[in-house]
């Protein structure tokens, strides 16, 4: 049982480059989300999805895009990388029923991204 | 604005020395409070969910409690393997689409 799998684990980019962070889960969870974690700050929600074909913005969505074509996958795209996007990115998933907002989230082990 | 504050930032304990971590939040309506454990280089691992004041949950040496304004994570007779960063997250009634995380408390337990 793999849970939530994130790839790559580490990545270095140059300013202006684009890339996609991959996230896959094998638990048939409807709800998936992306967070960033910066030193001294709590995790902050970037984007989330309550099911295939449905996505919405979190609290820090600028500079990131997402799509949800399948239940299993929820990729995060950086459109034009900036040094301020240097962070550790976590993907999480959870069941939606009966109340998605009170289901514990299962996290992947993160992607450590550096933008030079 | 809804906020979650954890204290202390860091806690160094001797093996067997019990202590408590605090998570306080602005009182604008609570849907649920979550405790997670995070090991270096890993993602957060779910520990507990608390929904209402007076509720308590236990798991091994950890016990989480909830009041109207804060939650405590009590670590009883800790062992070195309890060393980790403990994260508190709150889902508020307003803005319930997101979990609001505290910055965490890093616990180090020395043998």
Structural account:
The complex is a heterodimer of chains A (116) and B (111). In chain A, the strands form two sheets. In chain A, strands 2, 4, 5, 6, 9, 10 and 11 form a seven-stranded mixed β-sheet that branches. In chain A, strands 1-3-8-7 form a four-stranded antiparallel β-sheet, with no helix packed on it. Chain A has strands spanning 4-7, 10-13, 19-25, 31-37, 44-51, 54-57, 64-66, 76-78, 87-94, 106-107, 111-115. Chain A has 116 residues and is mainly β. In chain A, 0% of the residues lie in helices and 47% in strands. In chain B, 37% of the residues are buried. In chain B, the strands form two sheets. In chain B, strands 2, 4, 5, 9, 10 and 11 form a six-stranded mixed β-sheet that branches. Chain B has a five-stranded antiparallel β-sheet with strand order 1-3-8-7-6, with no helix packed on it. Chain B starts with a strand and ends with a strand. Chain B is globular and about 45 Å long. Chain B is built from no helices and eleven strands. Chain B has 111 residues and is mainly β. The chains are: A mainly beta (116), B mainly beta (111).
What structural category characterises the helix and strand content of chain B?
mainly beta
Give the C-alpha Rg of chain A.
13 Å
**Main sheet summary of chain A:** 7 strands, mixed
Unreliable spans of chain A: none
In DSSP terms (H or I, runs of 4 or more residues), the helix count of chain B works out at 0
- Topology as H/E string of chain A? EEEEEEEEEEE
Quaternary structure: heterodimer
Shape category of chain A:
globular
Main β-sheet of chain B, in a few words?
Answer: 6 strands, mixed
Cα distance, first to last residue of chain A?
A: 36 Å
Rg of chain B, rounded, reads: 13 Å
| Number of beta-strand segments of chain A | 11
Shape, principal axes of CA atoms of chain B: globular
Mean pLDDT of chain B: 93
Unreliable segments of 5+ consecutive residues of chain B: none
